[in-house]
């Protein structure tokens, strides 16, 4: 077999973005990448979320798992709507198509055993935040990876607030500005994190979890 054919076959099976995320996860339990989704899809998801928000389709987010929820504004102030992972909406289907490819890759190359995915839209209006927390529940350890995708427009800057702060295992903090199209992936059971107060504007995102059985 010629060398170029062999390298083509290998590159068909490896994906440099997924490899970079996996590498980061092994090194520091989180990863931040900017081009996981095409900019066009980010724009469509942003518009979709804004339309839903304007139509009052989102509801106040609660603390706890989906069967045991309470709303506590002093802990989190965002509004959410869960997204059906089998949605017929072409924009949401394109989003899940990419997520499913990533899951297939994780399961094939890292034997992660991801079986379920749950994602919701989120809007943090001005003045809201989400206090330091861990994404997994003592009663439910199935959440393995947390994924956050930011849908703000390109004007969003540090002045708007709403940074994601990750408390790393090296006892340092990592501050991530929620730039459009930026995707943060981290280990749900390991890393505490918080969303700083939004100073101005509406902070837009999709947050989700990849779960084992
Ligand atoms: O939006 C973010 O940056 C993080 C959201 C979060 O921590 C959560 O929904 O559990
Ligand atoms: Fe979280």
Automatic annotation (TrEMBL):
Its cofactor is L-ascorbate. InterPro entries: HIF_prolyl_hydroxylases, Oxoglu/Fe-dep_dioxygenase_dom, Pro_4_hyd_alph, Pro_4_hyd_alph_FE2OG_OXY. The keyword Iron applies. GO terms for biological process: cellular response to hypoxia. It holds the Pfam family 2OG-FeII_Oxy_3. Keywords: Dioxygenase, Iron, Metal-binding, Oxidoreductase, Vitamin C. PROSITE patterns: FE2OG_OXY (PS51471). GO terms for molecular function: ferrous iron binding; L-ascorbic acid binding; peptidyl-proline dioxygenase activity. Residues 110-212 form the Fe2OG dioxygenase domain. The keyword Oxidoreductase applies. This is SM-20-related protein.
């Amino acid at each position: 077999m010629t060398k170029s054919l062999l390298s083509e076959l290998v590159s068909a099976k490896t994906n440099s973005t997924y490899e970079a995320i996996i590498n980061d996860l092994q090194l520091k339990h989180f990863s931040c990448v900017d081009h996981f989704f095409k900019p066009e899809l980010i724009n469509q998801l942003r518009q979709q979320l804004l339309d839903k928000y304007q139509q009052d389709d989102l509801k106040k987010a609660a603390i706890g798992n989906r069967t045991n929820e309470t709303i506590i504004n002093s802990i989190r102030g965002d509004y959410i709507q869960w997204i059906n992972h089998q949605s017929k909406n072409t924009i949401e289907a394109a989003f899940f198509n990419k997520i499913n490819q990533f899951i297939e890759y994780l399961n094939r190359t890292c034997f992660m055993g991801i079986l379920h995915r749950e994602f919701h839209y989120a809007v943090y209006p001005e003045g809201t935040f989400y206090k330091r927390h861990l994404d997994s529940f003592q009663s439910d350890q199935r959440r393995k990876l947390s994924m956050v995708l930011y849908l703000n427009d390109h004007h969003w800057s540090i002045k708007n607030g709403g940074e994601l702060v990750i408390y790393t295992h090296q006892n340092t903090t990592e501050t991530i500005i929620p730039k459009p199209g930026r995707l943060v992936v981290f280990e749900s059971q390991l890393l505490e994190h918080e969303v700083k107060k939004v100073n101005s504007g509406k902070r837009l995102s999709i947050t989700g979890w990849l779960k084992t059985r």
